[in-house]
Amino acid sequence: MATVTDVPDRSRFEIEIDGAVVGFAQYRRRPGLIAFVHTEIEPGHEGEGLGSALVSAALDAARAEGVAVLPFCPFVRSFIDEHREYAGLVPTDRRAEFGLADA
Questions:
Q1: What is the largest CA-CA distance in the chain?
Q2: How, if at all, do strands 33-41 and 68-71 pair?
Q3: How many CA atoms lie within 13 A of 41 on its CB side?
Q4: CA distances, 52 to each of 39, 63, 76, 94 (Å)
Q5: pTM reported for the whole predicted model
Q6: Is the per-residue pLDDT at 103 higher than 60?
Q7: pLDDT of 60-98, one tens digit each?
Q8: How far apart are CA 82 and CA 77, in angstroms?
Q9: Which of 20, 22, 76, 77 shows the smallest number of beta carbons within 10 Å?
Q10: How far is CA 15 from the centre of its chain?
């Protein structure tokens, strides 16, 4: 089973399987804001849905914390585009910048 953990001292959410980190979503934080800049899954684990599980957990954490999301990472941006329930995390005035203007 995969586990997602926020690791603030590394500025990223990590996804682990059996105690081994197999991917991460790198971020930059500002007060009230988290900007996702890069997501990576180990090549041996691509295609297993771990990227989606990782990003979903990271976005759920942002929602729970009440912070806005800026999806500079193409994977995070695509995930939000496909899962519109997360589009509200992106500030209305920034959505067009990420191709989410119709959200």
A1: 41
A2: parallel
A3: 18
A4: 10, 16, 9, 23
A5: 0.95
A6: no
A7: 999 999 999 999 999 999 999 999 999 999 999 999 999
A8: 9
A9: 20
A10: 11
